[in-house]
Specification:
This protein has about 150 residues and is of the alpha+beta class. The chain is built from six helices and four strands. The protein binds FE2/S2 (inorganic) cluster (FES).
């Protein structure tokens, strides 16, 4: 028979998969989602909110249809990620963490996505795009807009 501590450990192990599921279902984790989850699991609001805001792949606000995560870790950085970031920001008219007015794009600048040998790299809706150039970015954005 699990004691109280086992139950707490079990509920916290499930927190990340539950939040991921909520985001997959709703597109983001709302304040209402956090409150309901806290009520159901008895995990404090602050703890759930802490997890929901800690991981870069989770979001607590609605995002655009196309979500860009550009890597700015060392390998990408030395291969020109800052120029790529600047170019994308200019093309989309937004900064990291923002969504375009037409709700087509959300931009995030983050850490390594595991494609260091093909830097600079980014994820677009979870799909890897590497060896980025301004020409490649233009094509990707154009395809998303069509
Ligand atoms: S440093 Fe950019 S993908 Fe690893």
């Amino acid at each position: 028979m699990p004691d109280k501590l086992d139950k707490i450990i079990e509920s916290k192990k499930l927190l990340l998969p539950i939040l991921t599921e909520i985001q997959d279902r709703d597109g983001y984790i709302s304040e209402d989602n956090v409150r309901q989850l806290s009520k159901k699991t008895k995990i404090p609001l602050s703890e759930i909110y802490g997890v929901a805001t800690f991981y870069s792949f989770l979001t607590t606000k609605p995002e655009g249809r196309n979500i860009i995560h550009i890597c700015n870790s060392p390998s990408c950085y030395v291969n020109g990620s800052l120029n790529i970031i600047e170019f994308i920001e200019k093309e989309l008219g937004i900064k990291s963490g923002q969504t375009t007015e037409d709700k087509l794009f959300t931009l995030h600048i983050g850490s390594c996505i595991g494609c260091c040998d093909k830097a600079p790299a980014m994820l677009l809706n979870g799909e890897v795009h590497d060896k980025l150039t301004e020409k490649k970015i233009k094509g990707i954005i154009k395809k998303c807009r069509s």
